Amino acid sequence: MISTKGELVGLSTITLLLPLGLVIISFVIFLMSKKLKKGNRVLGVMTAAASAVQLVMSVLMMTAPQELYPVDFSFRLNLIFVDLITVDFYIDALSLFFVLLVNMIAFAVTWNAVSSIEVVEDVKSENKKRLIKEPAIFHGLVNLFHFTMLLVPMVNNLVGLWIAIELTTLGSAFLVAYKDDRDSWEAAWKYLVITSTGIILALLGTMFLANAITIPASQLPPNLKTQLPSDQLMNWTYLMELARNGKLNLEFVKLAFLFAVFGYGTKAGLAPMHTWLPDGHGEAPSPISALLSGVLLKSALYAILRFYTLTNTALKSFTFTSGILLGIGLFSLLTAVPFILKENKFKRVLAYHSLEHMGIITFGLGFGGAVALFGVVLHSLNHAVTKSLMFLSFGNVIRQYDKHGIKKQEDITGIFRSMPVTGGILALGALALVGTPPFNIFLSEFIILWGVLKRFWSKDILDIPEFSHPVIIIAVILFMISTTLIFYGLVKHLGKLVLHKVEGDHKMEEKFWRDLFPLVMLFIFVLVLGVWIFPPLSGLIRESVRIILDQH
User: Fold this and answer.
1) Is the Cβ–Cβ distance between 148 and 21 less than 8 Å?
2) Which letter, b or e, does each residue of 433-451 get, where b requires 16 or more Cβ atoms within 10 Å of its Cβ?
3) CA spacing 20 to 30 A to 327: which of 38, 118, 127, 291?
4) Of 436, 450, 417, nearest in space to 488 by CA
5) pLDDT digit string (tens) for 70-114?
């Protein structure tokens, strides 16, 4: 049992540094690949084992007494008495929730990747391995991706947060192109260009926020009189104190939120900045699609949540943020409908489901209130678990069908007959994804709607007097219609995959520890979180909601 903040700092540091250490090991194994013939597979096992350790440490941190949080510490790199870099870390309940989410999905993904990533020879270049398809490079990039996604919720400084999210692109762009064909490179290029454009907008938002704190020192409240180093002026903790004391320029705060939402919303896959999603998810290897959809989108959501809290605290109202988020959330949800209904590759259909669920999360965030926000935070985890389950399940299907000469996703049918366990999990996971009871997504969507209706009935609608009741009613009706149509669309796609006959008599491999274990683990969470939110997790979510609402 964790009893001191020092223990939390130690666990946090180890959690963050483990994948970074494996990045270095990956590089060494790549350089010595001729001498270490089994090094690539060993590296995959080491990555999965490290992810398991990180998940255990995250659970230990979650079960620590709440009075130990928040935890803050700094990392300083010195060279001959000169400070090269100082990074301030800050971990509260909201940070810890996203750390737990990252490590949970990373464990399932890295376990699956041990067997799904194989050495591919380049027959066009004297039978040498292509750099992009070298497994040591793959596992190194996965660990770098994992490290950057852990860095996002841990850094205190909002400039550091922007850098961390930009670094996630560095860790993931080459992973999107892992198949090393024309389509995958086009998808990677599109992902890189669109998300980098969005990140520039987020940087502008961060700069506007920096300009909002240019006030005379004489106006600072007594507890903020101490002069902070320039690299700490954008710390989340410092900015929140300024916001609570009314010491931020409100016009700059509004501009900062607007640019942050559209900037980080690009990385979160919100419409109309979502266009990288279908190509990125569709062309990346399935384990990477699971990381992109399950974790990367939530890392960008974390940044939006921090700006949401800061803006509402500074403005002393939810009015400004609610209108923007409601509009973006509903637009994202409606945009997803026609693309899910049309004929498409199944991985691209799953990508549009990411657009749908990020729309649902943003829709609930726009309505606000403790109940809806509880549903929003829970839905972030539920979507991450369920979507990762779907991508990993379908990835196993693609790999086995490919071995039997079925190369195109459009030709995959009859999964129930050829892979009954995987097909069953895939079908049940799809029902969970569209919000069917008693699975996890139904519960979180129900809580979000319950929170919306509760605010509506209490006549506390968004704290926005200009919003009439009919507008809210229409928004809720559109929400219900959209989710119903999306249910129909996914069931239609799924019917072809699992029920139609498969050509030939193919009985494909389904080994438990190699293929099914990560799927079973995720599916257990899908089932359990649909009927019971175990107390440590429930307490962590409630405390996260208090942080989002800035309730002391």
Assistant:
1) no
2) bbbeeebbbbbbbebbbeb
3) 291
4) 436
5) 998 887 665 555 455 778 899 999 999 999 999 999 999 999 998
- Apex 372 CA angle, 370 and 373, nearest 5: 65
Asked if 135 and 178 touch (Cβ cutoff 8 Å), the reply is no
Q: Residues 29-70: pLDDT tens digits?
A: 777 765 555 667 788 899 999 999 999 999 999 999 888 899
SS3 214: coil
* Collapsed DSSP state (helix, strand, coil) of residue 85: strand
**In this structure, are residues 60 and 2 in contact, taking their beta carbons and an 8 Å threshold?**
yes
Each residue's pLDDT tens digit, 362-421 = 999 998 889 999 999 999 999 999 999 999 999 999 988 888 778 787 788 888 888 999
Other C-beta atoms closer than 10 Å to the C-beta of 11 total 20
Q: Phi first, then psi: what are they for 65, rounded to 5°?
A: -55, 135
Q: Which of 416, 397, 297, 384 lies closest to 347 in space, CA to CA?
A: 397
CA 435, chain centre distance (Å): 19
Number of domains forming the structure of the chain: 1
How far apart (Å, rounded) are the C-alpha atoms in residues 408 and 402? 8
Length of the chain as a residue count: 552
> Token digits for 29?
């194994």
pTM over 0.85: yes
The amino acid sitting at 73 is: F
Residue 284 has φ and ψ, to the nearest 5°, of -70, 155
